[in-house]
Design a protein that fits this description.
This protein is an alpha+beta fold and about 300 residues long. It has three domains: about 120 residues, Sufe protein. Chain: A; about 50 residues, Orthogonal Bundle (Arc Repressor Mutant, subunit A), CATH 1.10.10; about 90 residues, GMP Synthetase, Chain A, domain 3. The chain has twelve helices and eight strands. The strands form three sheets. The chain has a three-stranded antiparallel sheet. Strands 6-7-8 form a three-stranded mixed sheet. Helix 5 packs across helix 8, helix 9 crosses helix 12 and helix 11 packs antiparallel against helix 12. The longest helix is centred in the C-terminal third of the chain and has 19 residues. It is elongated, with a radius of gyration of 24 Å.
C-alpha cells in the first residue's frame, strides 16, 4: 500500500484542470498506454507576453500520475515560459507533499510533458528537441540521456532509484549493468562539481603480491592458498558474486579464479563469454572494483 500525502489524495480525487483546451497552442504528449502511463498537457500561451494563461491535461495512469498532472497545471498557470522551464520533477513532487519513491516517475513524466508542450509551441518536435540517445531499457523504451538527466537532477545512486524515476530496469533487468555504468559516469561529473557521492568512500589498499598463475589449475591454487588472505579478496569475491547473480538466466556463468597483483582473473561460460556481453561484464567488474578499492584493477579471463 502506497503512503500518499493528503495533497496527493486531494489532487487524485479532485483533479484540477482535467479537461480539454480547444484553442491550446502548446500540446505535449508523453508516455505510452502500453507502458501504463500516458499524459497530454495542453497550454494556452499568450504569444505577446509568453505567459501561460491556461493549462489542462488528460492522462491515463495511476493516482500519482493524475495527481502529478493536476499539480503541474496549477503550478504553471500564470507563469512565463522562462519560469515554467525551470520547474523540476522534484518541485512537482514537493508541491504534492511528496510522492512514494516507486511513483517518482509520474513527476518525471509531468516534467517531460511540459518540455514537449514548450517544444511544440516553438514549432519543434519533442523527439527532435530532446534526443533520448541509445535505448538502454528496451522493456520501457528508456534512453541513456533520460537516465543521465534524472540521475544528475535528483542525485540518484542506485538502479532501484532509476527504476523509480523512469521505470528503466523494472522489466527483464538485463539493462541493470548498463544503468550502473551510467550512474557512475554521471557521478564522476557531479563530483567534479563538488557534489559528494553518498556512501562512497575510496579506500587505499596496498598492492597484493601473489605469484602470477600460468594455468587454470595454478590459478585456482593461487586463489585458494594466496589471495584469500589478501585485503582485496573479500571485496572482489562479493562484487563477482553480485555480477554473477545479475547475469541473464540463459546458461551464462561467472567465477572468480585468481588474483595476481592488480589483475583479477575470472572464468566466463555461456553466452556471456563472447562478444559485447563479455566486454561489458569485464568492464563492469573493473569499474566496481575501482570504486571499492580506489585504483585501477585489470579484469581478464583465462
Amino acid at each position: 500500500m502506497w503512503d500518499y500525502s493528503d495533497k496527493v489524495r486531494d489532487h487524485f480525487l479532485h483533479p484540477r484542470n482535467a479537461r480539454i483546451i480547444e484553442d491550446a497552442n502548446a500540446i505535449g504528449d508523453v508516455g505510452s498506454i502500453i507502458c501504463g502511463d500516458a499524459l497530454r498537457l495542453m497550454l494556452k500561451i499568450n504569444p505577446v507576453t509568453n505567459v501561460i494563461e491556461d493549462a489542462a491535461f488528460q492522462t491515463y495512469g495511476c493516482g500519482s500520475a493524475i495527481a502529478s498532472s493536476s499539480a503541474l497545471t496549477e503550478m504553471v498557470k500564470g507563469k512565463s515560459l522562462q519560469e515554467a522551464e525551470k520547474i523540476t520533477n522534484q518541485e512537482i513532487a514537493d508541491y504534492l507533499g511528496g510522492l512514494p519513491p516507486e511513483k517518482m516517475h509520474c513527476s518525471v513524466m509531468g516534467r517531460e510533458a511540459l518540455d514537449a508542450a514548450i517544444a511544440h509551441y516553438h514549432g519543434k518536435s519533442y523527439e527532435h528537441a530532446h534526443d533520448d540517445g541509445e535505448i538502454v531499457c528496451h522493456c520501457f523504451g528508456v534512453g541513456v540521456n533520460k537516465i543521465k538527466k534524472v540521475v544528475w537532477e535528483n542525485h540518484l545512486t542506485t538502479v532501484e532509484d532509476v527504476t523509480h524515476y523512469t521505470k528503466a530496469g523494472g522489466g527483464c533487468m538485463s539493462c541493470h549493468m548498463r544503468i550502473e555504468e551510467i550512474i557512475d559516469e554521471v557521478w564522476v561529473d557531479l563530483e567534479k562539481c563538488g557534489v559528494p557521492r553518498p556512501g562512497y568512500v575510496p579506500t587505499e589498499i596496498p598492492s597484493i603480491k601473489i605469484t602470477t598463475a600460468s594455468s587454470i589449475k595454478e590459478a585456482n591454487f593461487a586463489l585458494d592458498e594466496g589471495s584469500k588472505s589478501s585485503a582485496i579478496y573479500e571485496d572482489t569475491k562479493a562484487i563477482v558474486a553480485e555480477v554473477a547473480a545479475g547475469l541473464p538466466k540463459d546458461g551464462s556463468s561467472l567465477e572468480l579464479t585468481a588474483i595476481s597483483g592488480d589483475e583479477v582473473c575470472v572464468k566466463l561460460e555461456g553466452p556471456v563469454a563472447n562478444g559485447m556481453l563479455k566486454d561489458m561484464t569485464l568492464n563492469f567488474i573493473a569499474t566496481k572494483l575501482k570504486e571499492k578499492i580506489g585504483r585501477e584493477i585489470k579484469v581478464v579471463t583465462r
